[in-house]
Amino acid sequence: MSTGSDAALVSEQGLPAETVPGGIVSPDRSPAPSSSTPAGAGAQSGFQEYAQSLLVTLVLALFGTTFIVQAFKIPSKSMEPTLLVGDHLLVNKFIFEGRGAWYEHLLPYREIRRGDIIVFKYPYKDHPHYVKRVVGLPGDRLKIVDQDVYVNGLRLNEPYVVHNASDPFGDNFPPRPNDYFYNSLVPEWADDIQNHIQNGELVVPPHKYFAMGDNRDQSEDSRYWGFVDRDAIMGRPVIVYWSVASTSQDYENGGEGGNFSGIGHILMHLPSQTRWRRMFHEVH
Q: What CA–CA distance (Å, rounded) separates 242 from 61?
């Protein structure tokens, strides 16, 4: 059964690969100021050029993290063994169509597919970022029988899924009306889920997705809180650029002192704690 402790992704300040390195200013090849130039004008001009260069770099960085790529780190076990606690990811935000923007037809966007790993905003609380795998697409009819997932009457082949225990609720889904397992659901989802069940199957509404973790018994996912809205989906993780041996407890909020202590511990043990084999590991 899900422990309900599925931690959200932690966002990191990332720069797009296309961004010019910050702080580098092109050599100034303008003529030297004449003797009639007021004192201090050259220094003022140099400061203005530096400020302009810095502003351009910040704009490019903002554009990149908004539209192209963003960095996150994994704080929970819900996607193991595909993604491990301590994996640092680059998320491609320049991949999925479906928002209706005019430029989708001009740029290399594609539709969201079943099996895609997605980063999205959790629909409740303070909307932290979650990472899960898409199992149900809009219009799909979905059910789980004895841990096997069936979509539109066909059993899914999911070689990436692991089960470590028996979960009476998650292993057989959706629940029947008045089932006592409703206590496991987010209240809003408990009130709404029966509106989407037909003949014992959950029907995914338009512009919604059903997502679950690969570590099925330790994943708080769509079974427990509902559908993922298309507008909440940010992108798809593409690569692990760094991975450090960690536990979920390392990412719990322990106050400023705990955060600095954790950073210091990682820096002191960086070579030994880095999972070198996962460096630049492609995410599937």
A: 20
